[in-house]
Amino acid sequence: MPQNSITSIQPGYERTSAFPKPKIIFVTDQNGNLLIANTEAALTVGVPMEQLLNLNLSELIHNGTLNTSYTLRAAKNKCVEQGLVKTKFKIETHAISQPVFSPNGELLYLVTTCVATSADRKNPRAGLNLRNSPALKHNIHIAGSTAEDIVAESSTMKNILNQAGNVARLDSPAILYGESGTGKEVLARYIHRHSNRAGGAFMAVNCAALSESLAEAELFGYNKGAFTGANTQGNIGVVEAADGGTLFLDEIAELPLPLQSKLLRVLETGEIRRLGSCVNLTSDFRLIAATNKNLKKMTEDGSFRKDLYYRLHVVDLVLPPLRERPEDIPVLALHFLKKFNAKYNFNIALDNGVLAAFQSYDWPGNVRELRNAVEKYIVLGLQDKPAQIPLTLSAAGRQLKQSQFAIAAEGQGSLKQAMHQFEEQYIYSILKACNFRTGEAANRLGICRTVLYRKLKTFTGCTKLKDG
């Protein structure tokens, strides 16, 4: 499911209280991999939640857990599919699978809702009342989105975690300040998990990634026919989907002024109105916002609404950059090392020299950059060339001072050696930008893929890269 700009989970049917709520609801990607499931889904198929979210629907059919899947049919036919599904426990449900598309028509994911066959079958689609469904209000589980444990060794971060624990017990809006990459969303999830809304959904939206023309529709939803190209069945917005849980607005300073006004009204009244609708709906959520900008200064130059600022500025937490808490660098590095060793099935260690290089670096990209550096260390085999660590911490060594370059190269290299080092760093930076897809990286570098492989072999002997 996309992280940067959220297209809401909904099947598009009008709400109603005249029909029973769905018992089972889950979301899959276009290949049938389970992304979200409520507790009832796991109980019905008899598979533990942790295991269920690692399965594909084809596997459930193959092992006899389900006799068929209308989700897979909907993915194949790119339209709503429905019918009866039986489990290995002889439980019969009526399933409806709804594909959700991006504005350019790409299939993003599928929402499937199942109701017991004893429910009113005359209008089975009415069971798709997602606003009150367990998947959005209770027991939501999202595959691969389990919040990382917050690693804190410095007194500064321990104090922030203590403050966050106190903030979690409140229900007022909160603003998280900090440079990019300091872990504002991780802290927001920490607050959510320790709040009385932990059983509800955590809806994260990057305001900077919202399409200007569709931002209002994505946040507040829309009814069918609201605008040209709209889903013919309408869409629930993320503010509405956060009912009972937490709404996290990252980079809130990028929210357009007209939407700032509408968000303020939602916070004041608890009511929202979809585009193309004249009906007010209620949504009870806790708002956490985050930014790396000075909102107070933005109110003075008119780029951020003063009334919204003062409505949000109830509780604020400031995450310091990584360079101001060097005690956290080694424990974070070892934390990420453990995760990547498990991910790639490696058993690589960080020696003291590497940790020293990490601690001497100022980390302009903060925790995110450190995480990427540890992954690069493992994936590109830098553990065999520890002298290269200082040179590869930033994207082509641009952050290193000239004196640091001389120290790293021990001041004894020839021009040829220096050019070789620069070539290695530059190729690694392009690979990283291409998510280590060798085909794409070769195109950007203007060389053949075989030439790229040959150069990589001379650098590290590493071949654990992606094709494409």
Can you say what the CATH homologous superfamily of the largest domain is?
A: P-loop containing nucleotide triphosphate hydrolases
- Poorly predicted residue ranges: 1-22, 119-148, 394-410, 460-464
What share of residues are in beta strands?
5-15%
The residue fraction in helices comes out at 25-40%
Strand order of the largest sheet: 3-4-5-1-2-6
The structure class reads alpha/beta
Distance between the termini: 21 Å
CATH structural fold name of the largest domain = Rossmann fold
- The radius of gyration computed from the alpha-carbon positions, rounded to a whole number of angstroms, is 25 Å
How many DSSP E strands? 13
How many structural domains in the coordinates? 3
Shape descriptor: globular
Number of helices: 20
CATH class of the largest domain: Alpha Beta
Q: What is the name of the CATH architecture of the largest domain?
A: 3-Layer(aba) Sandwich
Question: What is the residue-averaged pLDDT?
Answer: 77
Sheet with most strands: 6 strands, antiparallel
Outline the structure in words:
It comes from Sporomusa termitida. This is Anaerobic nitric oxide reductase transcription regulator NorR. One of its GO terms (molecular function) is ATP binding. Keywords: ATP-binding, DNA-binding, Nucleotide-binding, Transcription, Transcription regulation. Residues 25-62 form the PAS domain. The chain is α/β, with parallel strands linked by helices and 468 residues long. The protein folds into three domains: 24-119, PAS domain (Beta-Lactamase); 155-320, P-loop containing nucleotide triphosphate hydrolases (Rossmann fold, 3-Layer(aba) Sandwich), CATH 3.40.50; 326-459, no CATH class. Helix content is 38%, strand content 14%. The strands form three sheets. The chain has a six-stranded antiparallel beta sheet with strand order 3-4-5-1-2-6. Strands 8-9-12-7-13 form a five-stranded parallel beta sheet. A two-stranded antiparallel ribbon has the order 10-11. Strand 1 and strand 2 (34-37) form a beta hairpin. Helix 19 (438-445) packs across helix 20. The chain is globular and about 75 Å long. The two termini are 21 Å apart. The model is unreliable at 1-22, 119-148, 394-410 and 460-464 (pLDDT under 50).
